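> example.struct
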């Protein structure tokens, strides 16, 4: 698609004006330094970058439109995979300060060990776990890959958020809450509780994986 010299000059001088610093760093990590390079990626690929906030995609779409460009079209028949970012989680854990850090460490080990296709990354400011294998294309805002993520708001309890936990129909009592959006929570207050609930935690994750819309 043709790009006017005026538009190209504007976006090259200040290609991502108004974009938050974490989002800019996310683009730079992929070598995206101008609008033309951005157009080589699909919207989903960009939305999944660590640091890309909810307001970033609309701003990038606007910038592309002003330059006479758009995101790369996704191949609807392509089965998509996602890479684990263990090094990012390792770095996060080394800097983490929480009274129940030992509980977090043990839960992380358990979750990763459930299935070889479970990966991890930092999302929503905490470690999250997701299915890394092939999947049919979907809207990234549906977060279909994500199994569970940590929440460290409370100091006396580690909360784990299963974004679509409702579909598991857990009967063990591990998952709590009745949120309309399908979220369910699991709580861990000490290592003994982790040991007591480990069997149910593994079962819930395995069930979730069996219900996933894999490619």
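> example.seq
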């Amino acid at each position: 698609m043709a790009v006017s010299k005026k538009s190209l000059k504007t976006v090259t001088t200040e290609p991502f004006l108004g974009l938050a610093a974490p989002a800019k760093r996310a683009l730079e990590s992929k070598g995206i330094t101008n609008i033309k390079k951005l157009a080589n990626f699909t919207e989903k690929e960009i939305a999944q970058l660590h640091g890309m906030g909810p307001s970033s995609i609309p701003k990038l779409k606007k910038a592309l439109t002003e330059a006479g460009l758009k995101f790369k079209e996704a191949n609807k028949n392509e089965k998509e995979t996602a890479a684990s970012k263990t090094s990012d989680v390792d770095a996060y854990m080394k800097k983490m300060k929480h009274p129940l850090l030992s509980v977090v460490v043990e839960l992380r080990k358990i979750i990763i060990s459930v299935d070889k296709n479970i990966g991890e990354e930092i999302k929503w400011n905490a470690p999250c776990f997701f299915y890394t294998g092939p999947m049919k294309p979907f809207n990234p805002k549906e977060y279909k890959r994500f199994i569970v993520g940590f929440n460290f708001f409370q100091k006396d309890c580690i909360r784990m958020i299963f974004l679509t936990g409702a579909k598991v129909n857990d009967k063990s009592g591990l998952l709590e809450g009745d949120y309309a959006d399908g979220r369910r929570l699991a709580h861990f207050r000490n290592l003994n509780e982790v040991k007591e609930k480990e069997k149910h935690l593994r079962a819930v994750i395995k069930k979730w994986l069996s219900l996933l819309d894999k490619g």
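> remarks
Strands lie at 118-123, 126-131, 146-151, 158-162, 184-188.
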